[in-house]
């Protein structure tokens, strides 16, 4: 009997809750519920911005990034595609560019949750997509980030050099008409841009650049109005123009449109500094509103510009405007001011990387260091622009290599890698869709680079004339 009592004691004192809680091999119901109820990291709630951008301000910045002087090259792009093919191609290219921006921003927001960071730059997003992607590629994160960082910086410094030449040439063309006896070289005009550019590039917050973007957008609309006046004046019938050009010319059309529309380097800074980042990808949001305006303007200028001037249309349609008219000359002058204001916004991209590399070095002299670096970088672009005033072929090569890669190929790869082990959609449609975008970017890269190299060979063969510097230039 005593033996039986001893055996029954454990059963009488058994408590399932006590045993499960004390046993380290199990978790109590309390600990389980606390983990389930734990709130996931929200990057938007952890952004502490001193100068956040409003939704309207963000739209203005994105418009300014995409509406550069490249829109004036759209009639030449239509010449390489034809009216029908050009219209369809502009719409498709615009949709692709909008989509690649959207998937880049969406991926950035998702990896911010994984990395528990409030925001990421373009390069950070690309590196993190690999780091938090499939195990086989996780070690490539830092390498990818470094490649994208340096590629972005070099690409935008190259564009800034051409901006210097464009500003100098715009003023030179106008002043040479009104003051023919007071001629100065293009190098002098480029050098004269140094102080104004240094001053505007000391603005360090995108919020403070909103007035510049607003003014630039207003002035470019004035330029468009003047240009469209001459475009629609005595407009010939559209049937006199080619509807579908030779397919061998289509790559030139694609390269021009992609280079002109892409503002990929400004996208992440704009989204990162929004007061309400959810509105960037919402419908209608910052991206959709801005790109609808961009695509519409590109299509109208390209279509009717080609109808008016036909095969005689030049790389920048302003070069087709009559030199004897004051209004036409004012369009060139205003476009120079637009590019001057745009320079400050594009300058933000390489400075973001340079500032990140510096980190907290020279903490006691941050202001002096910032001013010095910004002044030196501007001086470098002015010096290169003045030394090589016919930069269009070199920069178009850089644009072909970098912007088709950064704007189309990289976002497609990043989106695919990050979602490889997560969700590639029905029948892996994400993989097939991104593969098609990658193919288009490679076509633009190869065709643009080939055309640029061919032009360089012809330039050197003809003695390197610097006349009509912007006859074939395409800017972002």
UniProtKB/TrEMBL annotation:
Keywords: Membrane, Transmembrane, Transmembrane helix. Residues 53-451 form the Amino acid transporter transmembrane domain. Its main location: membrane. The keyword Metal-binding does not apply. The chain crosses the membrane at residues 147-166, 186-203, 215-232, 252-270, 282-306, 326-348, 368-388, 394-418, 430-450. It is found in: Membrane. InterPro entries: AA_transpt_TM. GO terms for cellular component: membrane. It is a multi-pass membrane protein. Pfam families: Aa_trans. The keyword Transmembrane helix applies. This is Amino acid transporter transmembrane domain-containing protein. It comes from Loxostege sticticalis.
């Amino acid at each position: 009997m005593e033996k039986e009592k001893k055996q029954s004691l454990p059963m009488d004192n058994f408590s399932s809750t006590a045993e499960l809680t004390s046993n380290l091999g199990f978790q109590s119901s309390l600990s389980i519920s606390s983990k389930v109820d734990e709130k996931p990291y929200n990057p938007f709630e952890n952004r502490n911005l001193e100068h956040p951008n409003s939704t309207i301000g963000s739209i203005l910045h994105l418009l300014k990034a995409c509406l550069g002087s490249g829109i004036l090259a759209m009639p030449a792009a239509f010449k390489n595609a034809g009216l029908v093919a050009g219209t369809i191609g502009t719409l498709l290219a615009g949709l692709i560019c909008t989509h690649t921006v959207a998937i880049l921003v969406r991926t950035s927001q998702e990896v911010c949750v994984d990395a528990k960071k409030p925001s990421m730059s373009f390069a950070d997003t690309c590196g993190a997509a690999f780091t938090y992607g499939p195990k086989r590629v996780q070690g490539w994160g830092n390498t990818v980030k470094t490649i994208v960082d340096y590629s972005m910086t070099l690409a935008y410094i190259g564009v800034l050099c051409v901006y210097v030449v464009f500003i100098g040439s715009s003023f030179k063309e106008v002043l040479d008409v009104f003051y023919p006896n007071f001629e100065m070289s293009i190098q002098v005009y480029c050098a004269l841009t140094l102080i104004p550019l240094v001053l505007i590039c000391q603005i360090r917050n995108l919020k403070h650049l909103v007035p510049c973007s607003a003014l630039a957008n207003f002035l470019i609309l004035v330029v468009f109005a003047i240009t469209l006046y001459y475009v629609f004046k005595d407009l010939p019938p559209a049937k006199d123009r080619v509807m579908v050009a030779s397919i061998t010319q289509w790559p030139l059309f694609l390269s021009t449109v992609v280079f002109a529309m892409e503002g990929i380097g400004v996208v992440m800074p704009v989204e990162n500094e929004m007061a309400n980042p959810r509105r960037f990808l919402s419908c209608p949001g910052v991206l959709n509103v801005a790109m609808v305006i961009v695509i519409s303007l590109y299509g109208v200028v390209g279509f009717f510009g080609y109808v008016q001037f036909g095969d005689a249309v030049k790389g920048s349609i302003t070069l087709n405007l009559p030199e004897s008219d004051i209004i036409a000359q004012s369009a060139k002058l205003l476009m120079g001011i637009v590019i001057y204001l745009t320079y400050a916004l594009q300058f933000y991209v390489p400075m973001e990387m340079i500032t990140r590399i510096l980190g907290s070095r020279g903490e006691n002299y941050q202001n002096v260091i910032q001013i010095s670096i910004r002044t030196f970088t501007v001086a470098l672009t002015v010096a290169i622009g003045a030394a090589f005033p016919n930069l269009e072929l070199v920069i178009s090569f850089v644009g072909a290599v970098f912007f088709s890669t950064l704007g189309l190929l990289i976002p497609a790869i990043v989106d695919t890698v990050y979602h490889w082990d997560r969700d590639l959609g029905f029948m892996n449609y994400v993989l097939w869709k991104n593969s098609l975008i990658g193919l288009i970017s490679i076509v633009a890269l190869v065709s643009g680079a080939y055309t640029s190299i061919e032009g360089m060979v012809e330039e050197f063969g003809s003695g390197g004339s610097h006349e009509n510097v912007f006859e074939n230039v395409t800017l972002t």
